[in-house]
Amino acid sequence: MKRKERREFDQIVERYLPRTSDEEAESARDRLFQVLRYRHVLQEAIDNFKVPQAITKLVSLSYVDQLVLTSTYLLHGEESSSLAIADKVHELSAREIDEGAIFVSLDRLERGGLISARPFEEPPEGYKAVLVFQITEDGKSLLPDIVTGARRLVDALKDFASPKIEGE
Amino acid sequence: MITQTVSQQSGVSWQEEVERLFHTHYKFMYCAAKAVLGSSADAEDVIQNLLLKFLQRELRPELRANPKGYLYRAAVHESLNMLRSRRRRQESDEPDGFDILDAASDRANNNARDRLRHIFSELKPQYLEIVILHYEHGFSDADIGELLGKSRSTIASILSRVRARLNKALV
Questions:
Q1: pLDDT of A141-168, one tens digit each?
Q2: B98 close contact with A: CB closer than 8 A
Q3: 8 Å CB contact of A25 and B30
């Protein structure tokens, strides 16, 4: 192809290529980086996402929850593993309580911030990781409510108080 | 990003460096992608996909050594992939963003543009890189050679071969 022909041909190709203005490219770039900023914000939100610190006020503590919270308090300072707590719960309750319910309750109370769990420093032989539970300040603040509730129940159900006591 | 690896030299994470490079060379990449694909929306998609891909892996040494050339080549390759997959799907795609100079010859122009896209889709990626730099960016043979790490004579010979093919298909 001769130089002149080549130039003419180049002009034809250039004519069929799309033209891009500075404004078009800049606005496309702005859109991309806007998307990227959203992505960063979203990623940051995901990275920093935590289960919110829930109930510090009593929302609803079941009978088992009340027993578990009380047992954890009573074992305070001791090796309050879940098994020790379960034993204490059995000791306090009038009837047999399913251990599964105790473990579920421990989990619930921990998520609610009423008790805290940490790994036991010297786990017993045969155990890989044992958690030790402690009542938190929020948990302690609920104990008077449990006492009040229990007292009211006792008062309300005076008629059912044990015959032994009645006879005295 | 989740894990921020801080590069020792500059104190910024490699992800930030990738973003900075994309910001700097965006227009260059965008024009190339649009020239290959003929569509602004497709060109934007291509660059966005590329950025996400680059953010998912460590900064490559080639990118650090020759950011403009590497990003340009990535844009052309990614656009070519899209052009080819579009052809495979046989989508009827109306190119947008053209300067319509003569309304009466719209159809002829569109046909010529389609033929041009068709030829592009059949070119080797290395050839297309050169064609776009020459026609879209107006680079001289020497400048193209410098950006792509090839000799000036290689560029000139590839261009003349491609010109012959384009000439046959277009004129």
A1: 889 988 988 899 888 988 886 655 444 4
A2: yes
A3: yes
Picking from A12, A26, A29, the nearest residue to B171 by CB comes out as A12
For residues B128 and A109, what is the distance between their CA atoms, to the nearest angstrom?
65
Residues 39-58 of A with CB under 8 A from B: 40, 43, 47
Cα–Cα distance list, B128 to B63, B159, B167 (Å): 20, 10, 15
Residue found by looking up tokens 């009542």 in the block: A135
Buried b (16+ CB within 10 A) or exposed e, B81-119: ebbeebeeeeeebebeebeeeeeeeeeebbebbbebbeb
Tokens of B63: 């990118």
Q: What is the pLDDT of residues B26-74, one digit of tens each?
A: 999 999 999 999 889 999 999 999 998 998 888 888 888 999 999 999 9
* B27·A17 Cβ contact <8 A: no
Q: What are the sequence ranges of the domains in chain A?
A: 3-47, 63-167
Instruction: Note the CATH number of domain A63-167.
Output: 1.10.10.10
Nearest to A9 among B30, B39, B163 (CB): B163
- Interchain proximity A16–B170, CB inside 8 Å: yes
Instruction: Read off the amino acid at residue A126.
Output: G
Q: 3-state DSSP call for residue A97?
A: coil
In chain B the domains, ranked by start, together with CATH numbers, are 14-93+109-170 (1.20.140)
Beta bridge partners of A117: A133
**How far is residue B89 from each of residues A119, B53, B82, B84, B160, measured CA to CA in Å?**
59, 24, 10, 9, 31
Phi-psi region at B93: left, alpha or beta (left = phi > 0; alpha = psi -120 to 50): beta
- Cβ contact, residue pair B44, A26, below 8 Å: no
Q: Which two tokens stand for residue B22?
A: 């994309």
